[in-house]
Amino acid sequence: MKNLFFLFLFLPFLACKTDYDNPRINQLKDIKNKDEAYAVIPKPVSLQQYKGRFLVNDSTRIYAYDSLQNEAGILKKYLDDLPEIASIPEEPEALKYGIILKINDSLPQEEGYTLSIQTHTIKIEGKSPAAVFYGIQTLRQLIPSAKNRKQIAKAVNEELALKSHQFSEAEMLLPAVEITDYPQFAYRGMHLDVSRHMFPVSFIKKYIDLIALHKMNTFHWHLTDDQGWRIEIKKYPKLTEIGAKRKETMIGKNFDPYKGDEKEYGGFYTQDQVKEIVAYAKRKHITIIPEIELPGHSRAALAAYPELGNGTGPYTVATKWGVFDQVYAPKEATFTFLENVLDEVANLFPGKYIHIGGDEVPKKEWEESKQAQQFMKEHNLKDANALQSYFVQRIEKFLNQKGKQIIGWDEILEGGIAPNATIMSWRGTEGGIEAAKQQHNVIMTPNGVLYFDHYQDNPETEPLAIGGHTSVFDVYHFNPIPDSLAKEERKYILGAQANVWTEYIDTSEKVEYMVLPRMSALAEVLWTPADEKDWFNFLKRLPALESIFDDLDYTYFQKTPTDINLKKAEELQKNPKS
Ligand code: TNX
Q1: Atom 9 of ligand 1, residue of closest alpha carbon
Q2: Is residue 6's pLDDT more than 70?
Q3: Is 441 helix (H, G, I), strand (E, B) or coil?
């Protein structure tokens, strides 16, 4: 009843036939400074500001066309849990006041959307449900943060000086705007290593939410490595009974002399948990790419099934970091094992890609093993590089038959790339350049600039990290398309991804701290047209995003952007790190 009364009072102000023509609400001054009121990251392709505001209160309704109920449900939560998603009224006239979500097939880009906020309607149209979802993410960033709402309500009350109603902070005023938007790159990813350290299901979901907030679409889940096997495989229970646990963990950087913490460390995700996470990601339009490392980084698997090694056991789950000589033996039993494992993995993850690793494979054991030498002879493989290539190609063939495509780290170029493989270029961009020249798809993850396990500021004042130095500025100025690629080769660069290796990241908070706000910069690299990017303008928009991090309880690195001295910034802007 109260709501109805309220709506009635406001009709003269909010409901006008033409947009923006209400003399009172449309004359409202900009309450916040413009950059903040329209602070969207990544910056939209086109954003036209208007005067006026849309009022959201508990009588606002969301109308979801075209089976967009999932998207409507997500939006509803962002808007302080609006009471209900309304059914579509038969009379279009009834849609005068509300938020409308719709598919629009005529939009040119697959992930493109338009967002229009007017005084009495908000309309989000997308080419696909994912595109509508991106429009919702933009809308979400236009919602004033809790702390700004009070201020806005106060300013509006002063300016309108209505006797009949005082705005409260529970009523959100969204700024009028027309946005047309679509991403520059199709692949926009974040990676997380859960082998070196493990994170709870609740955090994996929180990480997925962060990916969604940034309009990224891929989560690369690094599930196996020397220090722990983290996914339940029904056919091989020892992978998690034995392979998911290590005796202890190295303390700090005590490689030599080695010093461990004497605490058993372990954990894994059950298949039910994996299914739950995959379904969660799907609702947020995020595809998960699972990574099962082969033929190297396999000590945890060998600890569980030593018969798959090159006779160099006994094997243990590694307790320190680095690259180890122990790799799978090239024999039929290994391929049967890997195929069975990948079979279960393929059934759990509906996306088209499976990452098979392929990085850092020392060839020592293969060179020294009679059995491996014999295998190479039988298969006409001239050296260990050819054997690595055989390994990957055989697995690719198996996965292609199951309708999946493989991704591998750039080492899989050595000895000949598998015919349909996508390359993840991590040792700089060179591997990516080479792969694109060979007409293979590429995802750029160069360790010089997209390794978010590296320091983001002075190591003396930062928590322990693996090394390196990559500031948010460096990330912001990364260009995924190397200059040396010819025009027709550029289309092979699908996009980029930041990698989060967790040797020195042992808590969820530290993951957040290491990725924020560097991933916000990466999101803009991947979404916004290069000539629209502007570092200083990005810095002005960042605080609004940080207030969302605050509201959602994310930990983040706070000082870099404003601390970067201008001269250095200008210099770097002219000559970015690649
Ligand atoms: C290299 S990137 C690795 C990882 C480490 C990382 C540390 C890649 C394919 N392999 O095993 O965790 O460096 O930055």
Answers
A1: 359
A2: no
A3: coil
